[in-house]
Amino acid sequence: MTTESDITPTPADRHHPLLKLALELGPLLIFFFANLRGQWLVERFPALSELGGPLFVATGLFMAATILSLVVSKIVLGHLPIMPFVSGIVVVIFGSLSIWLQNETFIKMKPTIVNALFGVALLGGLAFGRSLLGYVFNAAFQLDAEGWRKLTIRWGIFFLFLAVLNEVVWRNFSDDTWVAFKVWGTMPITIIFTLAQMPLVLKHSINLEMDGEK
């Protein structure tokens, strides 16, 4: 099994950009719709009632959609993007526990676990003198050592921020609010953060062609 960076542009990725986007967003949209129309789905597909309430129905469909998206990604794109792959493993484990124990806490804590895992891995790597972010982003751009260090620190802290933010939302707001935040809140925040890093990326970029001519 081959896993690759989310931003490593393989030929298949370049030929199927909309499919790649659909595979990453599709499971989240299904999760949002299933939670919103859980009772409607149960009325039309009575077997879903075995899963429990609307959030458990949404969790079951989310798990199925996540697995399907990874299978399609492997077949069509030829690789498994690393972040959706890791997230998918956590979805299956925590989603299964949520449904089996009829406890919503497990699926609600999934984003906390995933983001905390990425944040600790990035910052922990720096503690051992390694910028793990460089292994992910080096196919998209090249930075000097200081650039990788700063970018890794920022992404590590950002992932920890998302973990804390998820805890605040699911512990203090309704299920519907948490699901809406998970789908419509996290992604815009991540996009804004990513764009905010461009000045740093441009400042520390290395022109390999010019370096090679020297």
Write the layout of secondary structure elements.
Layout: E1 3-4, H1 11-15, H2 17-36, H3 38-44, H4 54-77, E2 80-81, H5 82-101, H6 105-127, H7 132-137, H8 145-172, H9 175-196, H10 198-204, H11 208-213
Helix pairs in contact: 2-4, 2-9, 4-5, 5-6, 6-8, 8-9, 8-10
Tally of DSSP helical segments = 11
The CA-CA distance between the termini, in Å, is 40 Å
Spans of at least 5 consecutive residues with low confidence:
1-9, 208-214
Measured on Cα atoms, how large is the radius of gyration? 19 Å
Range of helix content: over 70%
**Beta-strand level of the residues, as a percent range?**
under 5%
Mean pLDDT: 80
SSE sequence, one letter per element: EHHHHEHHHHHHH
For the biggest sheet, the summary is: 2 strands, parallel
**DSSP E strands, number:** 2
Shape: elongated
Query: Regarding quaternary structure, how should these chains be classified?
Result: single chain
Largest sheet: spatial strand order: 1-2
Structural class by helix and strand composition: mainly alpha
